[in-house]
Amino acid sequence: PLIRYKTGDYGAIIEKNCKCGSRMKILTKLEGRQDDLLFSIDGTPVSRMDPVFKNSFPIKLAQIIQLKHNSIVVNIVPENSFNHSHEDLIKKEIRARLGNVRITIKLKKNIALSKNGKFRAVINKMIS
Question: Is the pLDDT of residue 125 over 60?
């Protein structure tokens, strides 16, 4: 049986009996967790922000939070070699996707998990 708790994962339930005879609901199309959409400066929805960090930056963890259409906070748990040039490159990558937004980078020792115990890499505070 499926244990019921909120994971943030997405899927679909079929309202019919299984071929095995079980009368429990059937879970199909488990898609996993989905990050929030961000919006570019012109209002275009943007998904898949993880490529911003694919340049082998010396970071342990990163999280992008959109506060307004023109305001982004990036929480970073850095490796020891992380420096201002990395911050500039991250800002450039984000602006390439979202436009000329204001970006604040905050270096942290850790980034808190969500209430359901999962890490959220992208959060849109305009819709949350």
Answer: yes
